[in-house]
Design goal:
This protein is α/β, with parallel strands linked by helices and 462 residues long. It has 18 helices and 16 strands. Strands 7-13-12-11-8-9-10 form a seven-stranded mixed sheet. A three-stranded mixed sheet has the order 1-2-16. Strands 3-15-14 form a three-stranded antiparallel sheet, with no helix packed on it. Helix 1 packs across helix 2 and helix 2 packs parallel to helix 16. The two termini are 41 Å apart.
């Protein structure tokens, strides 16, 4: 029954991606257990991985005439959402800044996101400098949650007051999501036919992906695609670092830096974009347009481009340009409040992993692969938009009672990791086995994880 729930959810997601009601390939689900959550997190994670693999099976069938069967491991898919690398003799940096977290206010709860130095500076400008959450908490307690959220957001920071699911459904931004599809997709004019080999062993070899994403969701998408042989070039601005994420999400990629306000770097970026087959980006709505690289400009530079973009709170409504991260969206959309109510806790209870990020990342990978299939069949480029908040709606609408009856997934064990160590600049480590495979295709990464900015801004062979 549990495996059938995942298969049915995969069919739903694939239909939303393609408009086709049936899956192109047989789907097997292995592994056991669920992450401990009050929503069906593991089934949705497994289904999102499976739909990306189904899209790949369809893409390969265009070249080879038949669709390879897909096998997804629900346990491994869940474990990848925690951390995919186990260091050998060294430690990963903390995932969270010392001030990040949930705080009680005068009338409820709020989450402050301070991982980026600029975002921490905003919080300390509003509330005063602090060395710890314990020092900051009394100051937060004097505010009403809506007023503090507004103060932080208006100053350019990141915060989210806690709503219930019902509150969110009646909120103007929640209402705007009711009319947004999971995948907002538009097609572009035909371009020259692509010349990808689409070999079963390394399906995306020769496909160039320009990665303008940060933190988790977008990097998960491009990590997944790098495992299929794609040449992924991640571009970050100077001064941006993600020490707590780099070892996890840069696997298989070259990572470079450019300043898109600098004329020379803009020229380099435009050259890279002209040579790219795919661009994946996580800039807020309108941000690339303000830099001179809106949708029309991207298509003009690279006809036939497969363009997949991510936003936090959706692509319509007053919050379409609001900064947001998984943990904030969980607070806004009612997920943390639902966990608090179901557990009987006196504080927010979020999901055990950043599941909105990871699920959305795999959906983005599926959108890229579907876009590549469109290029093969009609030579058209495409633009697909997804958002964390729309993924949250997919989770909260899931049948909770029928999807959470499984034993809890234990921590990763020795058998969950590759037998070969991965040698990074930080030290050796053990990477989790891939969570999915096709009959003739398995995911493998040619490059170890690396620090941001470690490579030149040019296309290179993995």
């Amino acid at each position: 029954m549990s495996s059938e729930i995942i298969r049915e959810k995969t069919r739903e997601l694939y239909a939303q991606l393609t408009g086709v009601e049936s899956l192109p390939a047989a789907l097997s689900v292995t592994g056991e257990g669920n992450l401990p959550a009050y929503y069906p997190v593991t089934p949705l994670i497994a289904a999102s991985v499976a739909v990306a693999a189904q899209a790949l099976s369809h893409l390969l069938s265009l070249q080879h005439g038949s669709a390879d069967a897909v096998t997804v491991d629900r346990r491994l898919a869940s474990l990848w959402c925690k951390s995919s690398l186990k260091p050998d003799g060294w430690a990963l940096p903390p995932a969270w800044d010392s001030l990040a977290g949930d705080y009680a206010t005068a009338d409820g709860w709020i989450r402050l996101h301070t991982n980026a130095p600029a975002h921490r500076k905003v919080v300390e400008t509003v509330l005063g400098k602090a060395n710890s959450r314990e020092e900051l908490a009394p100051r937060v307690a004097r505010w009403k949650k809506a007023e503090l959220e507004q103060a932080v957001v208006q100053a350019g920071g990141c915060a989210a007051q806690m709503f219930s699911v019902s509150d969110w459904q009646h909120h103007v931004q929640g209402k705007s999501l009711e009319n947004e599809p999971l995948f907002q997709r538009s097609l572009c004019a035909p371009a020259a036919a692509p010349h990808w080999a689409l070999e079963a062993d390394r399906p995306l070899a020769g496909v160039r992906i320009l990665d303008l994403t940060r933190i988790i969701a977008g990097p998960v998408a491009t990590r997944f695609l790098a495992g299929l042989g794609a040449d992924v070039l991640r571009i970050d601005p100077f001064g941006w670092d993600e020490p707590g994420q780099e070892a996890d999400v840069t696997l298989g990629k070259h990572c470079a830096r450019l300043n898109l306000h600098n004329p020379q770097d803009r020229h380099r970026f435009e050259t890279l974009l002209r040579e790219a087959d795919v661009i994946v980006h996580g800039y807020r709505a309108g941000a690339l347009h303000k830099l001179g690289y809106g949708s029309e400009q991207r298509r003009a530079l690279s006809p036939g481009l497969v363009d997949v973009c991510l936003n936090a709170y959706g692509w319509s409504g007053p919050w379409r340009e609001r900064r947001g991260f998984d943990s904030l969206v969980q607070m806004s959309c009612g997920i943390a409040e639902f966990g608090m109510q179901q557990s009987g806790s006196d504080q927010p209870v979020p999901l055990p992993v950043q599941a909105l990020d990871h699920v959305t990342g795999y959906l983005m990978a599926a959108a890229v692969i579907q876009g590549l299939a469109q290029r093969v069949t009609t030579h058209q480029g495409s633009e697909t938009r997804v958002s964390l908040a729309r993924t949250a709606r997919e989770l909260t609408a899931f049948d909770v009672d029928n999807a959470t009856q499984q034993p809890v997934i234990n921590a990763a064990g020795e058998d969950d990791f590759s037998p070969q160590p991965e040698h990074t600049v930080w030290g050796a480590g053990w990477r989790l086995l891939p969570p999915v495979s096709l009959t003739k295709t398995s995911w493998r990464w040619s490059l170890p994880a690396s620090p941001l900015g470690a490579s030149p801004a040019s296309w290179q062979k993995a």
